[in-house]
User: Fold these one by one.
Assistant:
Number 1:
Amino acid sequence: MHTISLAIPLGLIHALRTAQHVAVLTGAGVSAESGVPTFREAQTGLWSQYNPEDLATPEAFRRQPAVVWQWYDWRRRLVAAAEPNAAHRALAALEMLVPRLTLITQNVDGLHQRAGSTDVIELHGNLQRVVCSRDHQVVTSWAETEDVPPRCPQCQALLRPDVVWFGESLPQRALQAALDAARDCDVFLSVGTSAVVQPAASLPYEALEHGAITVEVNPSATALTEHATYVLPGPAGQVLPALLHAAWHEPGIAP
Ligand code: BV8
């Protein structure tokens, strides 16, 4: 792996060291170095013929529930075989370095929690959880039959992943907590997201409007890039450890 030589601006180091509240929004890019394909990367194998945005919808589930269920099953197995990477670990370490950290994720892979982050705000749910498609109650076990998707043991409705599909509303408490954090924080990090999907994509702008320093960590430019206070171009698995090292000489997280 080529370590990037990244000059961390002194103003950013000072802002991080003096911040009372840091908020972080992560997207699929933070899991890329764990081998989990980003949401808009070309899907592999059987799934290469599908556009994720077409599958992650209630209409797709109504039309072809088995295909949608099997897509999530494939992703569940892929995520189960993945390990958190240095970006996830750096964000878990950041919790101990600032007075208050709010970690908000669009990801549904649960890798932040596996890296040790606590109190993660999951805006789009978590594909490891399964719910009844009728009452959205979590279901932890069901009879394995030929049914794909399997059926709810209580009411026989189809089971579905506990994720927010396009056209569905985000969990209100999670969204409100994320908005509150964006409006209260001193520093807002946007890490590994194309900053397209709403309402998550509005969070960095809420932070900017409330006077926060906004930092983008992404190897590519996004719609946020021109608005961010600082842009750290590069993979999160290298940039975040370098950022923590520069700001806190964090032992054990070498750049
Ligand atoms: C809603 C769960 C009310 C499922 C997901 C306002 C304007 C326009 C449209 C809308 C709007 N309000 C609502 C909408 C519609 C829609 C929307 O935003 N559409 C988009 C396409 C324009 N939003 C909704 O429907 C939301 N619901 O608002 O309800 C409502 C209802 C009806 C009508 C109106 C309003 C629900 C959105 C949630 C959808 N569910 N996930 C699943 O995962 O299967 S979203 C999905 O996209 C994933 O969660 C993913 O995380 C998320 C965002 O994508 P990214 O994370 O950014 O991933 P992406 O692949 O795009 O980018 C990866 C980035 O990483 C890239 O920039 C890349 O450069 C970078 N990268 C790569 N490697 C690295 C890296 N970065 C760092 N390090 C690396 N190594």
Number 2:
Amino acid sequence: MTDQPLPEGHRSGYVALAGKPNVGKSTLLNSLLQQGVMAVSSKPQTTRRRQIGILTLPQAQVVFLDTPGIHAPRHELGKLMLDEAITALAEADLALAVFDVHAGPDAVDAQVAQALAGNTTTLVALNKIDLADPAALQEHWDAYQALLPEAEMLTVSALRGDNLAELVGRIVSRLPVGPRYYSEGEVTDSFERDIAAELIRAAGMQLLRQEVPHALAVHVDEYQERGEGGAFIGATVFVERESQKGIVIGKGGHMLRDIGTLARKQIEAMSGRKVYLELKVKVLPGWRDDERALHRLGYKAGR
Ligand code: GDP
Ligand code: MG
């Protein structure tokens, strides 16, 4: 990890990707990150893992989150996933909607747009410009713009690389000034672990409100892939005092269960697969002032 000072005005933030299957979200991420870290396929819904892509530039760090939940609600479950994806979107700094410009919008694109409307700032990438018929381009452009009248749009080709530098520039300009959350060279995957820990912590903070202010830390002890069965995550929530342990566990274990449920839903939305989450609570007195403890919890210098 490099600790070189960042340039003034360094920007960072989360960008949630939205778009129906097959529009080229994974291809786009691959091209943006310039390495083959995302699952790409011509079959819809193959993106099941590695949905995080971290783009570290001299001036900015962009953390892309694929939101596989934002697909056509083919059935009730789809609707539920859509709700969760919307929650994920609300927490992002920016939404990047991806549409296929060589075809006009269909009902699913309209649904994606509807999910985005009024939520986060949205930037639209009209992908597959290499396939687009110039005669139909204006009409398709207008039809997509009508779905998201406020959004800024640009055409790209994830496959050929057209306009991607411009896209990155526009993304970065919309992120808030902020630090690097991840060290250079860290691109994806192992960060699911970190992000899972962060989501668990955030769920705890949200549900506990002021009761245990800032006294929560989370360590992911186990993160196991279980094939089609999803992933098993075992994590420990650390508090500073015995009294706080009682609050986190709650009456009859209710609070810990609620934290687990909320965190699990968010981790599932983030990773696009089922997650089985097991939480424990431990007292680690004064962990906030203890450098070794902080290191063990994965807190890095400057964070
Ligand atoms: P996702 O489901 O949105 O993640 O879509 P994928 O990234 O898996 O891409 C679906 C298909 O579209 C793949 O066959 C890609 O090669 C293809 N594709 C993606 N972007 C482009 C593009 O800009 N131009 C062309 N011609 N094909 C693309
Ligand atoms: Mg994909």
